[in-house]
Amino acid sequence: MATANDRSAGTLIRMHRDRAGLSQRQLAEAAGVTVSYVSDIENNRKQPSRPETIRALASALGVRADELFVGVGRVPDDLAEQLRTDIHAVDLVRAVLALDAGKQADLLAFIERASPGDELRWMGPGEPPS
């Protein structure tokens, strides 16, 4: 699947709109924006910049808002705040980014399978890191 890493925000939004079977007018109405605004985004004349607009577009398209945030080159506000205030979150992001893409995918799949409250056990060699 094409992602924001290899497409402009406008192309990404158009791709999702086409997949959802929506016209520009339908997307605009569902997201609470004008048709000309949707057209401007899709033709790369504008980028959605307000977090609430990005979330509204994502909701109308049925996609994760995070994908659209990345598409417009922004970090979601809640994540940015966490990274500004939590050194462990920064360390975790850096550790994940140091992994190759395959290991990142494996780690994400593992995390997605875990339920809140699950006990995670160290399975590596030796004692768990402290």
CATH class descriptor name of the largest domain = Mainly Alpha
Large-scale geometry: elongated
How many separate structural domains? 2
The secondary structure category is mainly alpha
**Which topology of the largest domain does CATH recognise?**
434 Repressor (Amino-terminal Domain)
Number of strands: 0
Beta-strand content: under 5%
Task: Indicate the CATH architecture of the largest domain.
Answer: Orthogonal Bundle
Radius of gyration: 18 Å
* Mean pLDDT figure: 88
Helix and strand sequence: HHHHHHHH
Largest beta-sheet characterization: none
Number of helices: 8
Q: How much helical structure, as a percent, in the residues?
A: 55-70%
Spatial gap, N to C terminus: 38 Å
Q: Would you mind describing this structure in some detail?
A:
With 130 residues, this protein is mainly α. It folds into 2 domains: 9-74, Orthogonal Bundle (434 Repressor (Amino-terminal Domain)), CATH 1.10.260; 80-113, no CATH class. The chain contains 8 helices and no strands. The protein has helices spanning 9-20, 24-31, 35-42, 51-61, 65-71, 77-85, 87-97, 101-113. α6 (77-85) crosses α7 (87-97). 15% of the residues are buried. The model is unreliable at 1-5 (pLDDT under 50).
